[in-house]
Amino acid sequence: MKFYRTCKLALWALRRNILRAALTTLGIVIGIAAVIAMMEIGHGSALAIQRTIASMGANNLLVMPGTAASGGVTFGAGSKMTLTPQDADAIEQECPAVGSVAPVVRARTQVVYGNRNWVPLYIYGTTPTFLPVRNWTDMAAGDPFTERDVRGYSQVCLIGQTLVRELFGGQSPIGKEIRVQNVGFKVIGVLPNKGANMMGMDQDDILLAPWTTIKYRVVGASVTNQNQSSAAAQGTSTDQNSSQVNTLTQIYPNTQQNLYPAPSTTQQADTPQPVRFVNVDQILVAVRAAEQIPAAIQQITDLLRERHHIRPGESDDFTIRDMTEISNTMSSTTALMTKLLLGVAMISLVVGGVGIMNIMLVSVTERTREIGLRMAVGAEPGDILRQFLSEAVVLCLIGGVVGIGLGRGSSYLVTLLLHWPTAVSVEAIVAAVVVSATVGILFGYYPAWKASRLDPIDALRYE
Amino acid sequence: MDLIELRDIHKTYHLGEVDVPVLKGISLRVAQGELVALMGTSGSGKSTLMNILGCLDHPTTGEYWLDGEDISWLSARQRARVRKRMIGFVFQTFNLLPRTSALENVVMPLAYVEDMAERQMRQRAAELLRKVGLAERLDHQPSQLSGGQQQRVAIARALVNQPRILLADEPTGNLDSRTSEEILQMFQGLNRSDGLTIILVTHDPGVANHAQRIVRIRDGLIEDSAVASAG
Predict the structure, then answer these.
(1) In sequence order, what are the beta bridge partners of B23?
(2) How far is the C-alpha of B119 from the C-alpha of B125, rounded, in Å?
(3) What CATH code is carried by the domain that includes residue B158?
């Protein structure tokens, strides 16, 4: 009741000189509007920057197989064959923090088109989800391959810009057939330019194909246990299955020397091959948000330990790597942006607050007789203090609310006319209300205190 | 028992090094329901006396008993409470809030009284305005009212807290003689019908003659206290 009455009194007093009240609060209105608009535009820009940084792979995790060791000799990271495509599917389905997953089979070999050849930095056999995981969804030309291509061992591929330049020299590669270690691949899409990664590796020097095709037709085994030359020398003979399929695509069939006589169909039927353990070289995981990276690592670790039947106490047969360097850059960029905007906000609000204090002091002087009268009819010093303080606070809060509206409006206009990205910032709105009330109390206190200390006799006689 | 009893009130102002005695030992009794005029020329100390009577100021020495309580040494806050409860003021310059309706002006003191519903406040204010003859002017702002009407609004405002004492400081100083007469008759009426204790501060014998008793002050002392001839 008392509070309500005080607010009403403040509103009533402000309404008596509405133009001055409006002009007084203009400082706060502009301050808050600037803060809100800046915060929203800044927030939008920060989001855009974050998206850009995220496209560098900040949200990505890399699951690698563990280290193989034999007789005290270790073979380095990823030398063990423990990860399967089923692991990748399980991670995608069972880890809530994970967005999408792409298994990767790597190869390093020569790619030939016409009279040109090139050894791409990356030959990746993967699934269509690789593109969204790496934020690489817009194709420069053509279309990405599909799940169906993966299931059907299709000989299709996507190539990066470097490969286009080196093999096609500006020609359109769509529909052309290139040879990867004598296996023909039809180019169905061209990836857009991505440039070098943070270590300076050219990310456009890439060939993407269904992992099944790379696995069974090109590599025939994980690349990790054979170097490039031996893989090239072995050619298509690594796997009986694939060599049969690949006979059609061999360019130089005469050079092929079979070390062993080819088994007849009867012999094959007599000695059935055990079902091969299919491994992938790494699994690329996109986490839903940067904050969830630790949770995702935990979930993937738990899941893979269970799937790989690792007992408690035994060490993992895989390793998970995150892009700490990039994500740190991201968070520090955002923090810097926020601090910068906060600084601007503070300055404009202090300026607005000084304006409020100035006018409140004038108002106290101007209304000295009114103060005297109120005191004569029984207002206690506390009542006067509360009245003037609440006037300042109400003025600031109204200014704050108008400022929020104005700020939202201008950020909307900026989006509409300049096409800058903006995002509604709830924190900024809450902060604006709190700050404007605080400014009102801070800068309204001195004038109100001065008013409450007036002597009623002098105040009544004041001309 | 007397409503007001002043015992040997002294008031000395300190202007830098110099002490200026304004009241030099005033003793005065005012009974409940009296209409008293305080008369004196300017500089006689009557304004200072009125400030002490109105509980706006405290005496340097001496005792002020109001309704059986010694209120000479109250703090500013306690004095505000006494004023709220006991005393209504009418000023020479009316002191109405500008750009505010007559009704709002009368309601204003009630904002400092606890526990009163908004409607009840307005009802009481409207009643008082009717009593002073401004039933038709509730929504008029001071600038739309004549001097006499403004003073009536001020009287209604002084009465809204239901005080025991009405202190009028030169209430007719800014009014023409006909309006002055109306206002003074209103004071007499309030005194007679409601038994309100009224203290009129004036330098005008014509005004003072409306009181039952005239207290003359000169140089900070009561010169004489006589029953008025006319009344």
Answers:
(1) B11
(2) 10
(3) 3.40.50.300
Cα–Cα distance, A28 to A353 (Å, whole number): 7
Is the separation of the CB atoms in A210 and A165 below 8 Å? no
Q: Which helix (H) or strand (E) segment is A210 a member of?
A: strand A206-210
Q: Where are the domains of chain A?
A: 2-53+329-461, 60-249+277-288
Count Cβ neighbours within 10 Å for each residue of B54-70 and write b for 16 or more, e otherwise: bbbbbbbebebbbbeee
Q: Are B54 and B158 in contact (CB under 8 A)?
A: no
Beta bridge partner(s), residue A185:
A178
Structure confidence at residue A248 (pLDDT): 52
Question: Mean pLDDT highest for which of A64-73, A129-138, A195-204, A268-277?
Answer: A129-138
From A160, A128, A156, A284, select the one nearest A214 (Cα to Cα).
A156
pLDDT number for residue A257: 62
Rounded Cα distance between B184 and A123, Å, is 109
Pairwise CB contact (< 8 Å): B83 & A376: yes
Q: How far is A457 from chain B (nearest CA, A)?
A: 7
Residue A196 DSSP label: B
What phi and psi, each to the nearest 5 degrees, are found at residue A71?
55, 45
Q: Is the CB of residue A101 less than 8 Å from the CB of residue A94?
A: no
Does A376 sit within 8 Å of B54, measured CB to CB?
Answer: yes
Amino acid at the residue A377:
V
User: What's the gap in Å between the CA of B7 and the closest CA on chain A?
Assistant: 22
Total number of domains in chain B? 1
% of chain A residues with pLDDT over 70: 86
Q: Is residue B22 part of a domain?
A: no
Q: What is the pTM of this model?
A: 0.65
Quote the distance between the C-alpha of residue A262 and its chain's center: 53
Nearest by CB to residue A380, choosing from B77, B157, B161, is B77
Asked if residue B20 is part of any domain, the answer here is no
For A268-275, the CB contacts below 8 A with 24+ separation are: A273/A240
Q: What's the token pair of residue B205?
A: 């014998």
Q: What is the DSSP letter of B211?
A: S
Show Cβ contacts of residue A165 under 8 Å, excluding neighbours closer than 6 positions.
Answer: none
Residue B6 lies in a domain: no
DSSP string across A305-348? HHHTTPPTTSPPSEEEEE-HHHHHHHHHHHHHHHHHHHHHHHHH
Helix (H, G, I), strand (E, B) or coil at B11: strand
Residue B40 in domain: yes
Q: Which residues constitute the domain of residue B211?
A: 33-58+75-227
From A353's Cα to the closest Cα of chain B, the distance in A is 27
CB-closest option in A377, A456, A457 to B109: A377
Residues 6 or more apart whose Cβ sits within 8 Å of residue A176: A113, A168, A186, A187
